[in-house]
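Sequence of DUF2059 domain-containing protein (Alkalimarinus sediminis).
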Amino acid sequence: MVHPIKIVIFLLFVAHSFSLQAQSNDELADKVVNRSGLLEMISQFPALLKEGVQQGAEQSGGNNQKLVMQISQIIDQAFGINESIEMVRKDLSKNLTEEELTRVLEWLDSPLGKKITALEISAMTSDAYQDMQTQLMALQEKYRGSPREKLFERFDKSTNATEASLETAIAVQLTLASAMSASSNSPHMPSYEYLKKSIEDNRFMMRGVIGQQVFANYLYTYQNLTDEELKSYVDFTSSPAGKNYSLVVNESIKNVLLKPSEVIGSKIMGSVTSG
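Predicted 3D structure, token representation.
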């Protein structure tokens, strides 16, 4: 017969092992977040959301700057940068193995990994976006038919960039559509079901637009890399650890954006109905 004390000791050992593993994963995930550019990316989200609201208002021909300012204030209140960073850390710790996190960290700490992270961070700003728009035609012409253009398909497949961006955009649109529909007493305001169908019907067109944006960002962000360096990066993103890392980060970023968009939507509803 196995002695009961031995069973207790064994269970304590197992529990301790799991605790050490969790602690190790947490520490590795923390290092990955700090060295990957995710901190800088998430910190940019409130400003990018507010720019999107302003551009949307201008493109729709509306001039309700009071509402635009209200929404901007709501975004500042709803988007907790520290909470969002913590969400990403937890997702990485939970969904990647210790070995995968170690592989990702080794890549990020490599000379090429550091170089690429710096390029990605510098491409996140509004100024960089404007610069990309001015260079876009020249970049497309420069790389048309090149190995770099042909490598994009493999890059997009391994990082899931287009599909992840598409699903995130649709999720945020649906949340805001729900809030705007519920907030309006106007008989001319389309129902949520109508808005939802319109968004889903536009999925194919949105995929094309977002795919072009992802391609443009790819050409602009990595233009200072050699073809060999870019291929090495794609080799990493195509590896089991690199691919799983991209999948987890993409899903986590979607949730990071979706959570405050729900708060934003409900607060927009409250501000419109009370106004």
